[in-house]
Each structure stands twice: as structure tokens, then as C-alpha cells.
Write a structure and sequence with these properties.
CATH topology of the largest domain: L,D-transpeptidase catalytic domain-like
Shape: elongated
Helix content: 25-40%
CATH class of the largest domain: Mainly Beta
Largest sheet: 7 strands, mixed
Strand order of the largest sheet: 8-7-6-14-9-12-13
Order of helices and strands: HEHHEHHHHEEEEEEEEEEEHHE
């Protein structure tokens, strides 16, 4: 059965095999062989010979060609087929070049990694395996060499010498203080005196890199220099915090025992801390402070990130939600500006008489509470003390 007219080739598309009426010089197998080839394509030797032979047939009999064969001649009249072997060689060359490039890159990466590891190992040995006196001598030798190459002026070299000497003395003093602190804490633990000195311990180990709060199995342990000082369960019902506005104190209870009592700042006149019961709803480290201020008669709220010189709420925010009747505004237990010396006492005793309503405590106690008191714990803000206790705070589970 012959194909319909619509199946014949159109334009330069020679797909499909025409019947004999469309061909005068070529036969159907010839047409099928050349129709969809590329005039600049790469083919094996036998195929190239057949293609050139078909082109010769078209060129020898130009008068007899049908329209379809003339279009074939126009397309392949200047055909220049390349050997498939040359293409294979080019491909192989590109593959080899790529593999070489990958190998070089891998070698460079491995070399850079090895140099980084060597530099890190050298620095680790220098930093932790060499005493401070030897480090100072190494530094002096290094800068002396730089000076001999005129890379460091004599004046700069003397300044460097003085700085290194001062740093060495400071490091020695710091190590001595750290050793004494470690011995003191360990002695307190051994003599079962943690309860009597707990506030002092929290202040001394505040932001010390040897201090860890380890959370495991629903329990938080306070670790210093590898020794456990105390541990607490993370159950909100075991915790209770009382803030006494008139006395300016906050008491922290755990499992019906007072573990901490510390000074606190409450709201000043006109911005008093709302009396009532609360619960802790969140804890944020290095919080953004949203300060309410009046500019040109309009009240606005400005976001001040932690670290800004105007940031005034310390390193932790323990958000509070009032139970029962809600209050306007946002309240939380937080610290004071960490960049200002004695800011807590200045804020407590100056004419402002306190905070903008939030309970404020000192950073070392806040660091402790933020790590051990769980979200959901109960907080009660009262105006006056109903009783005074003279006994010392005692953290549970002292190691």
C-alpha cells in the first residue's frame, strides 16, 4: 500500500520513505540511507563510501532529478563527511583531558587539606602543648625574624615585645586564678559546703568555659571543670518562683526547698510590676529588646538587637504570661545592660527606682535560672513578704 500524500517529505525534512514515483535517479534504499544524514557528520568508512556514491549519482544526472532528489543534492552537494575514528579520538582526548583536570583538582584539594591539617596541628601543639614561657619565646623569635627582614619596624617590635610580656603575665595570673577556683569548688563539694556557698559559686563560674549545663533524660546538671555541683528535674510542677516587690528580692524553690534568693529590680513609679500569678512561657538567649519610646509626640517601638550599646535586657529573657486577668504589655525576667559596669545597682538605686515593669536580676543568677528552670514553671509576684527566712539557700542533689 502506498503512503498518502501527507506523509511525503516537506521542505528539508527527508524523513519517511517515498514511493518510486517521487524518485527518478535513486532507489528507495539509497534515499533511506542518505535522507537523514548530516553533511558534516562522522561515519564509518563503508557508510561514507555509500553516501559519496549516492551523491555522485545525483550529480551525474542533474536533468533527470525529481524535486525531492534536487533538494537532496542541494543539501549534500558539498558534503564533507569525517571519519568516525577521528571523532572517537577527539572524544577520547576530551575524556583524558577531563580526567587529568579532575585528578589535578583532587590533588590540589588533598594538598590544601594536608597543609590545613598540618597548620592546625602545629597551632594546637603551640597552643596547648607548649607552656606560656615557651610560647613567648617562640613569638619573640618569630617577630625577631620578621624584624631582621625589615617586615616589622624596631618600634613595632618593641611594642610587640611589651604586649607579649604583658599577655604572658596576664595568662599566668588567669591560670593561677582558675586553678584556685577549681580547688575551691572541689573542696566545697568534698566538704558538703555547696549549699552555703551556692550564690558565690554561681557568680564565680559565670561565663567560665569550664561551666556546663548538661541536659539528659529530663534532668539538667550543673557541671564545673568536670565535677557535678547540682542536678534538677525539668518538671514545671517542682519549681516555684516568688518575687517580692517591697523587699526587692526573688526566691527560687525546687521540690519545696529554697535553692536561691537574690536581689531583684521591679517596676518604677508609674510602671509598676503587676502583682499576680504567672507562668514561664519561653526562654530566649541574646534576645532582641523592643523598646517603647516617644518621638515627636508619637509612641513607637524600636527593635534593639543584643550587643547594641542601648540594649538593656541582658543575655536572657524568660517570658511571663499572667494567669487569670491579663495585663497590657509584655513581661519577663531578664538582666540589665551587659556593657555597663554595676548597671544593676545603678538601676536599682537611682531616681528612676527600678525597671519598666519587668523583674530584673543579675546575669550570673539569670544564667543559672534560664538553664535549669523549665518552661511552664509557676511565678508569683507579691507586694510584701509574709515571712522572713534567715536560713541559707540549699540546692538539691549536691554532688
Amino acid at each position: 500500500m502506498n503512503p498518502t500524500k501527507s506523509s511525503f517529505p516537506v521542505g528539508n525534512n527527508f524523513s519517511g520513505a517515498p514511493d518510486d514515483r517521487k524518485l527518478a535517479v535513486l532507489d528507495v534504499p539509497d534515499y533511506n540511507l542518505i535522507a537523514n544524514k548530516d553533511p558534516r557528520g562522522s561515519y564509518d568508512r563503508k557508510t561514507r563510501e555509500n553516501l559519496y556514491w549516492i551523491i555522485d549519482k545525483l550529480q551525474v544526472n542533474p536533468v533527470q532529478l525529481t524535486s525531492l532528489e534536487r533538494r537532496l543534492l542541494e543539501k549534500f552537494g558539498n558534503a564533507n563527511f569525517s571519519a568516525l575514528e577521528e571523532k572517537d579520538k577527539k572524544v577520547k582526548l576530551e575524556v583524558a583531558r577531563y580526567r587529568l583536570s579532575v585528578s589535578v583538582k583532587r590533588y590540589l584539594k588533598l594538598t590544601a587539606l594536608a597543609l590545613m591539617i598540618l597548620a592546625s596541628a602545629t597551632w594546637m601543639v603551640y597552643r596547648f602543648g607548649v607552656d606560656s614561657e615557651t610560647q613567648r619565646e617562640i613569638d619573640m623569635a618569630y617577630y625577631a625574624g620578621m624584624n631582621s627582614l625589615d617586615l616589622v619596624s624596631k618600634e613595632d617590635f618593641e611594642h610587640i615585645r611589651e604586649d607579649l610580656t604583658a599577655t604572658s603575665l596576664k595568662l599566668a595570673e588567669t591560670r593561677k586564678n582558675n586553678v584556685e577556683l577549681s580547688r575551691m569548688v572541689e573542696q566545697m563539694i568534698l566538704n558538703n559546703q555547696v549549699t552555703e556557698n551556692f550564690k558565690y559559686i554561681l557568680k564565680q563560674i559565670y561565663r567560665d568555659p569550664r561551666t556546663k549545663y548538661v541536659k539528659r533524660g529530663g534532668q539538667v546538671s550543673l557541671i564545673f571543670n568536670g565535677r557535678k555541683i547540682a542536678s534538677y528535674k525539668s518538671k514545671p510542677e517542682l519549681w516555684y518562683i516568688v518575687g517580692v516587690v517591697e523587699s526587692g528580692i526573688i526566691r527560687v524553690y525546687y521540690d519545696n526547698e529554697k535553692i536561691l534568693e537574690t536581689e531583684a529590680i521591679f517596676g518604677r513609679a508609674g510602671e509598676e510590676t503587676p502583682i499576680g500569678e504567672y507562668k514561664i512561657v519561653n526562654k530566649v538567649y541574646k534576645p532582641t529588646w523592643y523598646k517603647k519610646e516617644t518621638v515627636n509626640g508619637k509612641t513607637r517601638v524600636r527593635a534593639i538587637p543584643f550587643g547594641h550599646e542601648e540594649h538593656d535586657i541582658g543575655r536572657w529573657w524568660m517570658g511571663l504570661k499572667k494567669l487569670g486577668d491579663p495585663v497590657k504589655g509584655s513581661y519577663g525576667i531578664h538582666g540589665v545592660n551587659v556593657q555597663k559596669v554595676n548597671e544593676f545597682y545603678k538601676k536599682n538605686f537611682d531616681w528612676r527606682n527600678g525597671s519598666a515593669g519587668c523583674p530584673n536580676i543579675q546575669g550570673w543568677y539569670l544564667q543559672f535560672l534560664a538553664n535549669v528552670v523549665p518552661v511552664g514553671a509557676h511565678v508569683n509576684i507579691v507586694q510584701k513578704d509574709k515571712w522572713q527566712s534567715n536560713h541559707q539557700a540549699s540546692p538539691p542533689s549536691a554532688a
